[in-house]
Amino acid sequence: MTRTAAGYDRRTFLKLTGLAGAAGLVRLPGTMHVAMAADAPSAGAIIDGKSPRMIVHNAKLGVMETPLELLREHHFTPKELLYNRTHFPVDGSGAWVATTAAPGADMTQGWTISVGGLVQRPKSIKVTDLAQMQQTKRVSVMQCAGNGRSYYWAKAKTPGSGWKHGGMGNLVWEGVPLLPLLKSLELSPDASVRFLTANGKDVPAVPGGADMIKSFPLTAPQLADAILALRMNGEPIPIIHGGPVRLVIPGYYGNMNVKWLTDLDFTVEETPSAIMQKTYRMPLEPVEPGKFTTQDLTQQNSVPTYGFAVMSVVFAPLAGQSVRAGDVELQGVAWNDGVVSLGEVRVSLDQGRTWRVAQLEAPDGPYAWHPWRTTARLSPGDHEVWVRAIDAWGRSQPIDGLTTWNPGGWDWHGVDRVPFRVV
Ligand SMILES: Nc1nc2c(c(=O)[nH]1)N[C@H]1C(S)=C(S)[C@@H](COP(=O)(O)O)O[C@H]1N2
Ligand SMILES: [Mo]
After folding, report:
1. Which of 259, 280, 281 to mutate to test the pocket of ligand 1 (most atoms within 8 A of CB)?
2. 42 CB burial (10 A radius; 0-12, 13-18, 19+)
3. Rounded to the nearest 5 degrees, what angle is found at the Cα of 157, between the Cα atoms of 152 and 163?
4. Which CATH architecture has domain 10-304?
5. Which of 130, 343, 136, 113 is nearest to 224 (CA)?
6. Which end of the chain has fewer surrounding CB within 10 Å, N or C?
């Protein structure tokens, strides 16, 4: 019997997670037919515990997003509804860490994080020791840099999943502040060091495939608030979301928040991994759709997707909804990279000709969702609500989100435009 590292054979694991039932249901592209949606495995069959109402983008990789009508129901996104993005197969065919563990397994035992790179004294940190240290809470948005990608497709198709706005959630993370911990280790990094490079336990399913390994500048303001997170929403982080230990850099796009953290290295340069050098980068200048590809991205003409762009979405009304005439409640959430405060959220009901300032609820912290609301007296007919956030540095959202089209489909933060009907 093949045993995995954690001592569970694959079949037991599949059974425990409900994956065994899903195996026979997976339909590969190419066998598409009208009934495909009904045949596709539901989210819960792919990742144990996920709501069957999640929108599955990629069954093999377990990529799924939260429908807005569910996302808007919770101030903190419950684990059943949190979007998921993994780069390697979750169906047991890939060398993915969570396929080696059973749900409920205590992954903290024996898990260590090696801290090294260009330092004089490399060290390692036991997760069991981390758990004994003082824990700090951060409320922050987790968001895929590809969130909203499908809206770019109005201009030109890009590779990657067709995310709408549900590739994000608002979460409570708890763990040990990263920088003070690194300082206490007295590693003596070389003066030439500019980046921290983080790696997780997952490895590419195909030999020679790009590893999911990420570098970020040591000077990033958000790093001061980064934690080695052990808990999400008051519980140990679910394995699929990076348990037992995940790097959480609040205000930074999902891909920088490395799950199943095993290595932290002080480095002079960004990791050469293609996931750093070609994927998850934004061109510095506008590029021609269809002509410029991710292969044309270089360290000179592009920057990694680090902090969140200023963004806001409408949670009510939802697109296509009918609402009663009279005082109509308009609401949603906004956020930015947390470096400066989110100044204002403005709402337009006349396609951007005039804007009103929405009320902002005090957020749980600089990196959290900022709920906004306003009411508008509306008469029956077709309407459209537009929302635009502006932060204290004047950073905002383009009226036409397509202007930031890029070959990876990253960083969508165009003004959200939601058509609805008043009856
Ligand atoms: N080790 C590891 N960390 C990872 C990933 C991964 O595949 N492996 N995916 C990243 C990406 S692209 C995103 S958007 C977030 C998704 O986090 P979630 O699945 O917990 O919502 O995790 C990031 N961290
Ligand atoms: Mo992502």
Report:
1. 259
2. middle
3. 55
4. Alpha-Beta Complex (3.90)
5. 136
6. N
